Amino acid sequence: MDLQWRNFPLVVIVAAAFAGVAFGPSESAESIPDLSGIWEHANPGFEPLASGPTALINRSRRPNGTGDGLKLTGDYTNPILKAEAAEIVKKHGERALNMGDPNPHNQCWLEGPPFVFTNHPNEIVQTRDKVVILYQDNSQVRHVRMNQTHPAQVTPTWYGDSVGHYEGDTLVIDTVGIKVGKYSMVDWYGTPHSEALHVVERYRMIGYEAAKEGFERDTKEYNEPRGMPAADPEGKYLQLRFTVEDKNVFTTPWTATMTFRYVGNGPLDWQEQACAESLLWYPGKEADVPRADKPDF
């Protein structure tokens, strides 16, 4: 269900403008890791860890033991899920097997974190006071305020309130206040979330061997040969390790990764994709594209 999505020229122009902003004397460009550029992850899903509380896997397996990407039935027996959430995941899996399952991606809705992490490719733009993350599909943009705190009262929004800081070679982003909507979910298995959702992201450049380990976990889940990077020790790789907690949905915080390869740095690397131009997300079914009930003015 990989659809055509919206064009990206405006945000690329904005990205170029941000890229030219100089860092201040208290935080020079040399003092922070350079995570800028366009990064790609081969498959639309998280990389479950080998042990500990981690993301759901697909109960639908191919004969070779890997997950069947055409039948997204989340493992509702994963102990991170509370009973009500497990039942919701189970129902989503039943719909996925029989008629396809709506989600924010195929319905052209905004994808809040952590679901949006699977939106690829993405571009990271760093400045002194802000980090901007651009997602190609549906022209989505996240703004991260650096070295700030969350307001005492956060008004929920689709991407939440994100604040960041650097810890050595790692960009850390803390997000709260993520809005709950019609198709809101944590992952492609329909795992729900409440407005208590709290996501912490840690982005760090890694070497080839560490990247290979992440891609191997990804390939085990999605059986995608293109998920494995070429044997290039000199290549650039970025890993996102994120932790999710929601007291209303999960029994415990859980962690997973997304491992990305560097694919470029410029507007020519973006493709024109518009979700609303391809409404048939499943045979005989039209996407529930967001529509305004009343004029904005």
Task: Give the topology, please.
Elements: H1 9-19, E1 37-40, E2 47-48, H2 83-98, E3 122-126, E4 130-135, E5 140-146, E6 161-167, E7 170-176, E8 198-206, H3 208-222, E9 237-245, E10 254-264, E11 280-282, E12 285-286
Parallel strand pairs: 5-6
Antiparallel strand pairs: 1-3, 1-10, 2-10, 3-4, 4-5, 6-7, 7-8, 8-9, 9-10, 11-12
Any overview of this molecule?
The protein has helices at 9-19, 83-98, 208-222, and strands spanning 37-40, 47-48, 122-126, 130-135, 140-146, 161-167, 170-176, 198-206, 237-245, 254-264, 280-282, 285-286. The two termini are 35 Å apart. With 297 residues, it is of the alpha+beta class.
Task: Describe, in short, the structure shown.
The chain is built from three helices and twelve strands. A nine-stranded mixed β-barrel has the order 1-3-4-5-6-7-8-9-10.
What distinguishing features does this structure have?
297 residues, single chain, alpha+beta, 14% helix, 9-stranded mixed barrel, two-stranded antiparallel sheet
